[in-house]
User: Which sequence fits this backbone?
């Protein structure tokens, strides 16, 4: 992976983690109620779960790329279509504040409980592995994938995921009133949706 590809990959993962979804709403809710520090362990659980999915996607796609070139092309187009669909849904969604503030979040029940909560939030979301399946071919030559490549993307993704999640937590902690407005959430959805649509379009036309 070139330096440019690594930088772009890290940015793409960063955008992915800050887009609205179950994990982000959980982080927003916890940060708004108990502060950003209580989000560190939950976010760590989410990152670990994501990296498991990312590693599985790496090896699964490498096998397909090596043995079934035609099927790999189909997967790439399906992934691109899926990203565009997600972007459209994000763009059109009219979020409500109750999406993440209706149920108050209690104080932390312990490090293990918080870690498992974050891990299960990400692990129970099949969109995570579909996202990685859609994105990886853009940044890596999966026909010559090595353990060093897998390690590198895990380090980059881990950094981007943790940075993005904690940025959201810190922002929610310091600007809870602003983030509780439907107008702010609507703008976030439209921005994220536009980026996701663009990513899907790029994936579809790239070779």
Assistant:
């Amino acid at each position: 992976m070139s330096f440019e590809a690594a930088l772009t990959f890290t940015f793409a993962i960063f955008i992915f983690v800050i887009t609205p979804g179950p994990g982000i709403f959980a982080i927003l809710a916890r940060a708004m109620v108990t502060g950003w520090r209580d989000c560190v362990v939950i976010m760590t659980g989410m990152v670990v779960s994501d990296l498991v999915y990312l590693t599985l996607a790496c090896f699964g796609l490498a096998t397909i790329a090596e043995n079934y070139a035609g099927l790999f092309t189909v997967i790439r187009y399906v992934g691109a279509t899926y990203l565009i669909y997600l972007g459209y849904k994000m763009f059109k969604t009219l979020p409500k504040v109750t999406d993440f503030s209706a149920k108050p979040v209690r104080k932390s029940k312990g490090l293990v409980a918080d870690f498992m909560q974050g891990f299960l939030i990400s692990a129970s979301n099949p969109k995570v592995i579909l996202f990685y399946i859609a994105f990886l071919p853009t940044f890596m030559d999966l026909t010559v994938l090595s353990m060093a490549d897998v390690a590198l993307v895990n380090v980059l993704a881990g950094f981007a995921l943790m940075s993005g999640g904690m940025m959201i937590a810190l922002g929610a902690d310091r600007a809870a009133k602003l983030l509780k407005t439907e107008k702010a959430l609507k703008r976030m959805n439209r921005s994220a949706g536009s980026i996701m649509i663009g990513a899907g379009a790029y994936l579809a036309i790239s070779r």
